[in-house]
């Protein structure tokens, strides 16, 4: 028993995180790898059958994990982003959902050969586009902010709404099967309204409580995040006890309320929940897919395949087209959103339970609901996962795939550096809080951003033109460190750099902590004063194609050139740092950006 448990944990945790790493390393959709891994573990090799191993606690565990995921998604829903995205988000979450439900039910009945009861349930389940699939895809694709907001809001909001809709449809079908149709207006509608209001109230009240306790210093920092996570699971459990599906709405509302009430200390929670979210999503997808029985897969037939294709190429596009008539969405945005609609964990979890209950109520073809939903999940994950980036690129809804650089602090030399990178055709943005400092760069056509990156507004502004690397180049070493520490979780600690604060302040024990600053740009002696002095003496940044006399790093030997970075187009930017454990050696075709003395420039 213990050996089986150890093997199961190893397969789920080790395999899931391993798949995430492979997906990151080779730029593949992680969800597809997780789904395939689960099929190999479960129906393929028979190594895992989680529901049999865990028993009756399997579905409650899955439900709690899904609640955490929608709570995490709720934390990302800032109403300011909703307003900035226009009416498209409202149409996708309020208008498109009922249209997709009706069209999905028609497809299930006329194409999938399901009876009407099973068809209405199938249509209700597939209206959700799960955040467990959409959010990881958005992290790996540089979509334009408005399009990304459309998909993010639709996925997070439709998940709990779709779960409640499926539960309501199931209740109505069961009642009709028992010939108590008159109970619909008497019991179900009031029960639905009460559950919805209860979920909203249970989501908002704990957020108010957290804000109250935090503002009055009544919660120690070490307990803040555990208390918030406990409240999220508690509101889910209480609301779900009253009505199945209401807990997901309550958890989502709780996350949204915390974000929009601007409770202090939420940045630490966001960082932790993102890491936990990756772990939870990895384990859930592997477990749910491994739990599929071979009999479910054997029920796949030509009508189910045809129904899946109809949902992909007819139901979703027509639903989006009808719901966005006379909206401010461009035709490219409508076409893209009409295609991208991967289903995820909520659809899988609801299908497994609802299909079984519908069959117990005596409805014919109820056994086709689960294989039909899983066929749609698998197909959308594969097709949408691999096609999202190419389709977005063709429709010109992506930002540049070239590695991008952000430089914080507009001075003479940083403007010169940004100009050289810009002229190479690499995306770059120069950031400063003072418009006058940015004016020379703006006149030269260099992209600029007037923002304070330590503010939420500044971070949101930077997200609109996402960068992959950052150099903090202001005269203030402490400010540079704060910016790098704030952005390191998003960029990666090996991708944020700052001008040296001075040799004495780099002591790992007595100096500035590595966690509180970025990597040192170049050598410890290259502080702001030195680089600024060299610039005043006529040193300028130049792009030097590797080869033809430009060899290796070669800084100390020549003394008339400071090699700052190496750019490999379409691949990466390597910024030189004394803290590099394995310096990158340029190859033919790379471009070295160096600060060159006037004499060396004449010699070139």
Automatic annotation (TrEMBL):
Keywords, sorted A to Z: Antiport, Cell membrane, Ion transport, Membrane, Transmembrane, Transmembrane helix, Transport
A single GO cellular-component term on record: plasma membrane
Lineage here is: Bacteria, Pseudomonadati, Pseudomonadota, Alphaproteobacteria, Acetobacterales
Q: Which InterPro entries match?
A: Cation/H_exchanger_TM (IPR006153), Na+/solute_symporter_sf (IPR038770), NAD(P)-bd_dom_sf (IPR036291)
Q: Where in the cell is it found?
A: Cell membrane
> What is the official name of this protein in its record?
Sodium:proton antiporter
| TM segment ranges | 6-24, 31-51, 57-77, 89-111, 117-138, 150-176, 188-210, 222-243, 276-294, 300-323, 335-356, 368-386
UniProt signal peptide = none
One Pfam family recorded for the sequence: Na_H_Exchanger
Q: Which GO terms describe its molecular function?
A: antiporter activity
- From which source organism is this entry? Gluconacetobacter azotocaptans
* Annotated GO biological process: proton transmembrane transport
Q: Does the keyword Nucleotide-binding apply?
A: no
Superkingdom of source: Bacteria
Q: Which residue numbers delimit the Cation/H+ exchanger transmembrane domain? A: 22-393
Whether Cell membrane counts among this entry's keywords is yes
As for membrane topology, the entry says: Multi-pass membrane protein
